[in-house]
Each structure stands twice: as structure tokens, then as C-alpha cells.
Amino acid sequence: MDHTYLAANWADIRRRVDEACRAAGRDPADVSILPVSKTFGADVVREAVALGLHRFGENKVQEIRDKAGPLADCGIAWVVIGHLQTNKARDVARLASEVQSLDRPELAEALHRRLQLEGRAIDVLVQVKTSVEESKSGLPAADLPGFLDDLARYDTLRVRGLMTLAVQSDDAEHVRACFRQLRELRDAARARGHILPQLSMGMSGDFPLAIAEGATEVRIGTAIFGRRPAPGGL
């Protein structure tokens, strides 16, 4: 299959992200792109690796399991960005380099136990619910201070920052408010002594708003890989 479109798409999204950074008065070097390869096969991911990409976001741990073997020679860092069940902690501890959807104490405990058995530590972001939509996962904002304090006892979980999913809305201000809330929560946590350099927020349809509110990483799927072969997409 010809995947040469990936190079053009990658160049285009990199340009658009850089433009959004400049429009917000920010240095483009301060915002990274996490390619989201969910629902695309190992052959497509391998083509993306040929472009110099080595971190890929996946919603489902099963997809990481399916792709990790065929792509074992590629040196990929797999990032879990979807809602994570505690019974998937074993696979995450073996295969993932980062979890951006840590949202509850029991998941932290399950990951910690499995990571201890694997002799590993991984980066994690706390996913905070900033949208009123019931379909969105995330820790309630009011619970964040206590949760961050509790995470300090897990030496296998390197807490790097926060993540959120904005509301799906045509009203840009409603979307932007979600991103602004995450930044303000991060700033408040910093004032309490937590070091949280990363803000993962923004996807293909709303990343300029996220960048304007301080995103350090945007999660891009459709704008890189095209329309997904299965329902749903970033």
C-alpha cells in the first residue's frame, strides 16, 4: 500500500502547529506532536517511523499488543491515551512507555504493582475531566490536589503533567475554557510544589485553541493518518 501521503500530512500538520504557536506568541519548539495511530495497522505505523516518528498514542492496550511485535525493530515508545481498565495494567507495564490517562487511585495502585514486578518506571499524566460530557473520562478537578499528593508515594510512576479532552462544541470559547482550566489547575499544583511540565491537550480539530492556552503536546491522529477505518478519531 502506498503511504506517501503521510509525509505530506506530517509536513502540513507540523507547519500548522508552528503557525499556531507563533500566533500565540510561543516558540514552536515548546510544543510537540503525539501522532495517534489508533485503528491503523503496523504497516502504516512503520511508514510513519520512516519519517522519523517514534512515539505513538493508542487508545486501546490491545492495539499496542497487536502492533508491538511486528514493530519490535522500530524502537517505538507507546503512549496510552485512552481510558484504561485496571485489568490492563500488566500489558501496560510490559509495553508502554507512558500513560496519559491516569485518572483514579485504583489504577495508580494497579500500575505500580505491575511495574514493580517488571522492574520498570513509566511517565504518567493525570487526566482531568474539564468537560461536562458524560462520555469524557477523567479525574474530577476538585480531586486533583489530593491525588497528586498520593502519587508521590509511587516511585514507578513519574508524574510529568496533566491531560484533558475538551468539550465537543462549535463554540470556540467553550472548548478553550476546558484547556484554560487545565492550565490553571497545573499552575495551582505548581504553587503547591508539584513539578508538572507537560500539558497534553488539543487534537486535530481544536489544537490551535489548546496551544493558545499553553499546551506542550497536541495529540494528532486524523490530520496525519487520514480518516480512520473504524468509528471515532482524534
Plain-language structure description:
The structure is a single chain. The protein has 234 residues and is α/β, with parallel strands linked by helices. It has helices at 5-23, 42-50, 61-68, 89-95, 105-118, 144-151, 172-191, 207-212, 222-225, and strands spanning 32-35, 55-58, 77-80, 96-102, 122-129, 139-140, 157-163, 198-200, 217-220. The strands form 2 sheets. Strands 2, 3, 4, 5, 6, 7 and 8 form a 7-stranded parallel β-sheet that branches. The chain has a two-stranded parallel ribbon with strand order 1-9. The longest helix is centred in the last third of the chain and has 20 residues, at 172-191.
Gyration radius from CA atoms, angstroms: 17 Å
Query: How much strand content do the residues show?
Result: 15-25%
Helix content: 40-55%
How far apart are the first and last residues' alpha carbons, in Å? 23 Å
Largest sheet: 7 strands, parallel
Average pLDDT level: 95
- Strands, total number: 9
Counting helices, strands and paired strands, the structural category is alpha/beta
- Given the structure, what is the number of helices? 9
What is the general shape? globular
Q: Which residues form runs of ≥5 with pLDDT under 50?
A: none
In short:
This protein has helices at residues 5-23, 42-50, 61-68, 89-95, 105-118, 144-151, 172-191, 207-212, 222-225, and strands at 32-35, 55-58, 77-80, 96-102, 122-129, 139-140, 157-163, 198-200, 217-220. The protein is an alpha/beta fold and 234 residues long.
